[in-house]
Amino acid sequence: MRNPLSKLVVDIQPSGIRKFFDIVSEMKDAISLGVGEPDFDTPWHIREEGIYSLEKGRTFYTSNAGLKELKVEICNYLYRKHQLQYNPNNETIVTIGGSEAIDISLRAMLDPGDEVLIPQPSYVSYLPCVRLAGGKPVIIELKVENQFKLTKEDLLNAITDKTKVLILPFPNNPTGAIMEYDELVEIAKIVEEKDIFVLSDEIYSELTYGRKHVSIAELPGMKERTILINGFSKSYAMTGWRLGYAVGPSNIIEQMVKIHQFAIMCAPTTSQYAAVEALRNGDPDVEMMREAYDQRRKYLIHAFKEMGLECFEPFGAFYVFPSIKSLGMSSDEFATRLLKEEKVAVVPGTAFGDCGEGFLRISYAYSIENLKIAIERMGRFVSKYKEI
Ligand SMILES: Cc1ncc(COP(=O)(O)O)c(C=O)c1O
């Protein structure tokens, strides 16, 4: 029999995040600080709206690009938060999570051989999605000494005449780094000068602490060259509803709708009705969750300092990214031993790119009680190996 598989797909490595969780799920008393998923339930009034839509018999496909009502609310939200004006009719598409939006925006923009700049450490799906779209990933290593921000020097060094798209992954998973207005101005200048496009993954836009999230699309000349991606998973604790969106120039959105139309048809109808409610009345819930995350963030930064591990202060998302370089172990070794010896699961920084070596991703989307137990165990582990 011929080999039924595509070489392109076979060559793609599975995500390094999941490896530990299969082990954790079978280990008694193990605590996971690994998953990037809110520990809160979806707020009740949002769930209720989903239930109500089912009771009303709203069980049909919506239009391909999404329910008109939802697209209007998405545009209202982006105007309210960022003074960005998008047309719900041709500049907005509702997708299956931010995940689908990342995939189809790359597929709509790339021709074989086009280079896509991927700052790392960053979310695991960018690289495979670029490859699956026929593009060539070009990695930019973000550095702890720059607080894991993208600098204009790093960007300029990576651009060639084949560069087409820059992925801008802020607030960042796994580092928690954010980009502020003045830093984005520097990036925007280069983007315009070099005539490239930006895929701005703003899925954690609501989760910043003491700093307001700025979208690069707000900067002069950038809206025309930016696909802005966001969704409901993180800000409204709606991971399982699988809902996200992209806004951007109508010529790109039009092609994205085409791929979405043939591959997906439309995002889940129930979720779309629930999301309308999230955008209309969900601000207080977001605020409550943000405050809880912020408390946990402060607790962890303090705890890692006490443990003697260097930990850069993140202002976004729900992750901290402490360095374990002082222990002389690789990230993978640390995570494997920690799980075996103390039953705490964390993700090695290398799951997010080679430059994540020497770091761990710790998620604080877990209750403070769980965090405290995990930190006590980690503290014991670190002091044991510090002495060796
Ligand atoms: C940076 C980033 N982008 C996108 C996603 C995808 O989220 P979803 O598809 O649930 O919207 C995630 C999920 O972890 C993420 O961390």
Can you describe this structure?
By secondary structure, the chain is of the alpha/beta class. The chain folds into two domains: 7-42 and 284-382, Alpha-Beta Complex (Aspartate Aminotransferase, domain 1), CATH 3.90.1150; 58-281, 3-Layer(aba) Sandwich (Aspartate Aminotransferase, domain 2). Helix content is 42%, strand content 13%. The strands form three sheets. Strands 2-8-7-6-5-3-4 form a seven-stranded mixed beta sheet, sandwiched between helices. A three-stranded antiparallel beta sheet has the order 9-12-11. The longest helix is centred in the last third of the chain and has 25 residues, at 283-307. The mean pLDDT is 96. It binds pyridoxal-5'-phosphate. Pyridoxal-5'-phosphate is lined by residues 36, 97-99, 123, 169, 173, 201, 203, 231, 233, 239, 244.
Q: What's the pLDDT, averaged over the residues? A: 96
Helices and strands, in N-to-C order? HHEHHEHEHEHEHEEEHHHEHEEEH
Number of helices: 13
Low-confidence stretches: none
CATH homologous superfamily name of the largest domain? Answer: Type I PLP-dependent aspartate aminotransferase-like (Major domain)
Rg, Å, rounded: 21 Å
